[in-house]
Write a structure and sequence with these properties.
By secondary structure, this protein is an alpha+beta fold. It has one domain. The chain is 47% helix and 18% strand. It has two helices and five strands; from the N terminus they run H-H-E-E-E-E-E. It starts with 14 loop residues before the first helix and ends in a 7-residue tail after the last strand.
């Protein structure tokens, strides 16, 4: 019985292609991870400030809080831009904090995700579409063709 066919028009990577794209993906994902950490810290700071009674906040404090909130929105826009860059390359961001991404791929006659995380030297893992990170399996030489 023949296997499923790839979805027409969808970018699918071989492990070799994913590794060739990795220098650019790594740079974008590094920016995403740094920005995600900064966003998380700023968001927590804003939430702590907002828990204070608003009636006790002075005008200058209100203006500072508004500036911090505006800065946060700008950084969120940058994050959306980075995610869009990855999407245009055909790469899916799974976790901005750890820098986890998936490259759609085709192995053993079906679609899979080639999986990479910031800090790994190359794309060495894959998993079924529904399996996620916990279902990662090591790529073997025979599957890389």
């Amino acid at each position: 019985m023949p296997g499923k066919q790839p979805v027409h028009g969808k970018k699918l990577f071989t492990p070799v292609q994913a590794n060739l794209a990795l220098p650019l993906v790594r740079a974008i994902v590094r920016d995403i991870a740094e920005l995600a950490s900064d966003l998380r810290e700023r968001q927590e700071r804003v939430e702590r400030l907002l828990r204070n009674e608003r009636s006790t906040l002075g005008q200058a404090y209100q203006e500072e809080l508004q500036q911090v909130h505006s800065d946060l929105e700008g950084k969120q826009d940058r994050m959306r831009g980075y995610i869009q860059e990855l999407a245009e390359l055909g790469v899916e961001l799974k976790d901005p904090t750890t820098g986890l991404v998936d490259f759609p791929g085709w192995i053993n006659d079906h679609e899979v995700f080639l999986c990479w995380r910031l800090g790994e030297p190359q794309v060495n893992y894959w998993h079924e579409l529904e399996a996620g990170f916990a279902g990662r399996k090591k790529l073997v030489d025979a599957e890389q063709n």
